[in-house]
Each structure stands twice: as structure tokens, then as C-alpha cells.
Amino acid sequence: MESECGSVNGPTDPAGSLTGGAGSSEPFPGRRSVDFPVAAVLPAGGSGERTGLATPKQFCTFLNRPLISYTIQAFERVAWIENVVVVVAEENFDLMMDIIHQFSHKKVKVVLGGPTRHRSIFNGLRAFEEQPDGTALRKPKVVIIHDAVRPFVEEDFLLKITVAAKDQGASGAIRPLVSTVIAATSEGYLDHSLERAKYRASEMPQGFLYDIIYQAYQKCSETDFDFGTECLHLALYYCGTKAKLIEGPPTLWKVTYKQDLFAAESIIKDTLSHTVCVVAGDCAQSVQLAHGLRKTLGARSMQVDVISGPLGSRAVLVSGTWNFIRITMDTSSLGEIAKLVKIVQDSEHAILYPVVLILVHLNLLSRCCLTEQMRALGAIRSLAAEAKHSNILLYGILLNHDERVEQWDETMENVAQIAAALVKDRNPALMPAWRHQCGRCSSPIHRTPSLLPSVRATGRAVETALIERVVRPSLLANGSLQAPDGLDG
Ligand SMILES: Nc1ccn([C@@H]2O[C@H](COP(=O)(O)OP(=O)(O)OP(=O)(O)O)[C@@H](O)[C@H]2O)c(=O)n1
Ligand SMILES: O=C(CO)[C@H](O)[C@H](O)COP(=O)(O)O
Question: Could you tell me which residues belong to the region Disordered (predicted)?
């Protein structure tokens, strides 16, 4: 039976959806496999009043992508989940279809919601029943219900919920209470407080044998539909099914208020910034610089892979990262950055998350004439503008040379600092920054090598995502590099 069997693997991923790509299929020793049909229902039909925003929170966008797409991806990437039913309000149906198309979601069926969460969920479950046109999604053995506004759910935890639901009929995620729950009198006085250690917060996902939860919804009252907040309660009350409760990770929290949207964005940015691939090309100086960066970025707890030699598609395919640093030594190798942009574009790597590509260019201004420099900078600027359309953020860091050997470590530190900030922030505003102000009239045309000593300040460099640093050529091996004109002596 195709795609019925699956097993769980994959790294623990705090954002749940950050591993991207196709679902996992490798067996994970010791883990129970899923050999029955499983589907998910994601209620997304609410208006998100508590955020105070005009846009329902599930459609709020960060890193160029709506929240709902992150949640869908967290389910789609799980090979053993067959179908993902997303329930939306009628006015958002077209928007939802556009999102599915734009982010290439493949397992999703969209259905219309109702005025309350329970009514929306029931509509979602009905998608597995025969439709008026005679079609139906394959009925799952276990259905996972998960709020569309909880984007961080991992495969491991989905497996636990699914297996427990299969064995017990129902299961749900819980978390320890953060605050004590108290009961108030109608006059607003304390009536009594609950013993916190005895109670838990009910979170999502929850899993059910499909027949049980469907039957519970068929039986439940209008009051349940209008005021109920707990699916596990319906299974217990109407079908006598006691849910197995499983403690989940803190990342299962629900985006409810505006600040939760900021928190979700930070988590995603943080998760994207743990790894970087430094592409050094084949020249010895670049490789040396790459290893210097590996050390300095590594000291910031980033995992850095260095790729040297001619650039193939392996840079993207092997590293599995969303961050690249390309080191170039002269203007002719600037074509290499275009090649890397093309590889990332072709791989469709940037559909899900913006890819950061940082060009660290060593000695650009000193090694060629002014006209050539301007041409190269112009080319980079246009490439950055074009790359932006493909969700690729191309930044530049420019390094120059000096006689002072002691500057090198500081330079590496500065480059690492800027690169780490660019990777972490993923801010498109810093992108087309290949402009350099000469301090007097802000025109790049006045930038000549003889002005170099006056433009070493890294503060301004950060502002423009452009660092000018001065390193001793002999540090960069085999003596082939020359100090810039005007700096000798
Ligand atoms: N009629 C509704 C109401 C809610 N939901 C969904 O149920 C989940 C959890 O509900 P909640 O956080 O309460 O979302 P909202 O109802 O949108 O928020 P608010 O209560 O602040 O308006 C959300 O994914 C929401 O879109 C739904 O599908 N249909
Ligand atoms: O945690 C949950 C289930 O137990 C739900 O996410 C929660 O009940 C949704 O409720 P509300 O719509 O009031 O935010």
C-alpha cells in the first residue's frame, strides 16, 4: 500500500518545520513505525481577535511566508501523514489556495470552517466522509488535530501522539502550568485556588482514532459547539475514551497575542542561523580565509562547513544550510557568486526560507582599476536585486590589506561578527549595500585606494553591510598579494 507505512527520523528541530524538503523515510532504530493511515486536521478558521491585528494571525507573514505555511510544512514533511486538511473561513479560501500554490504544499485539502473552533474542526473531519460529488479523502485510522497557529511541532512528538491515540483511542499534549489557576467569585474576589502541581495546561497536537472523534462530534451539543474548547473532553464525555496525556516541549505553545508572532519569528531565525557553509573556491588565500572564518564563527557556536575547489551544486546539496559565505579574491571570480546564486535558485532551496549569501571579497579595490571596481560593484548590486526576487539575500563584505599583522585577528573577528549578524537578522534592508560613502560627498566615485586609511571604521561598515579591513598580505600565504596603492610604508 503506497505511502501507508512510515517511520520516524530526522534531527530534533526546535522549529519543527526547518528541515524542509520531502518527508523523511529512513527507519529510526528502536522507534515504533506507523503502519496505518494517519491524517491531520488544522483548524485555521479563526479571526485572531486577541492579536489586535486586522490580519488573522495564521496569515501573518514572517520571513516572507505566512504562519500557516510553517505549520503545514511541519506536517507535510512527515512521510507517514497522508493528508492535511486545513480549515479556513470562506473569505480566506482564495488566499489559502494561493499560499498552497506559492509554497508548493502537496498534501493539503482546504475546507471551509464554521463560526467556532469546534465547528471548524468538525468540518475538517467531514472531509474524510463521502462528499456530495462522491469523492472523499481516505479515512485515516488516526487523525491528529492541531491548531494552525502552533507552527513548531516535531515529527518525534507527532509519532508519540499518534501511537498513543492508536493504542488508547485519544491522546493529547500537556505542559506544566506557568501560573496558578484560581476561581473568582462573580464579584471579582478570590473564591479558591487550584493546587498547581495537580493540573496541566492542555496543548496541541491531539490524536484520536478517527471513528471516536467523529462520533463524539456527531453526538455533541450545541453548547459544546459554541463554547467548548477541548476536543479530549468530547471524546471522554461522548465516547468514554480516556485520553493518554503526554508532556510536550515548550515550543508547542499557541500564537495568541501579537508578541507571540515576534517570538515565532525569532525562533525561526535562530534555528536558521546555526549552520553556515563557507565556499572558498580553489585559491590558497581563500581557503586560508575560510578556515579563519570557520574558527571565528565556530566560536560563536555556529557549525561551519568549508567547501573548497571548483563550485559544483554540492555546496547547496551537501550542506543543507540556508547560509552561505563565498570568498572571492579578484573581480574575475565575482562570476562565481552569480553561479552560487544560480545553484540556489535552481535547487528551489529558497522557497521555504530566505537564503543568506554573503560575498566576502578580499582586496577588490586594490587589485584593479577604478572603472573595473565600479563595474564589479554595479554587477553585484544588480545581482543582489535579482536574487532578492528568488528569496536570496545577497550581502557583501569587503576586505582590504594593510601591513599590520596584529589587525588580522581583529579583522576575522569583525567579519565573523557582521556575517553572524546578517545570518541571524536576515534583513533585506541591509542587502543592496554595495555603496560606499566617502565621508565628504557620499559618492562611490571618490573611493580610491588612496582614501583607504580614512575608511577603516567598522561602525560605518556595519551600517552598509560592507566592511573595510586591512590585513597584512604575507598572512595570506605565498606573497602573491600586494598592498594597496598608497598604503605602502
Ligand atoms: N471559528 C474558528 C475559530 C478558531 N479556529 C482556529 O482554532 C485555532 C485556535 O484558536 P484561537 O487561538 O482561539 O484562534 P482565534 O479564534 O483566531 O483567536 P481569537 O480567539 O484571539 O480570536 C486557530 O488556529 C484558529 O484559526 C477555527 O478554525 N475556527
Ligand atoms: O489548547 C487547546 C485544546 O485544549 C486549544 O488550542 C485551545 O482550547 C483553543 O482555545 P481558544 O480557541 O480558546 O484559544
Answer: 1-31
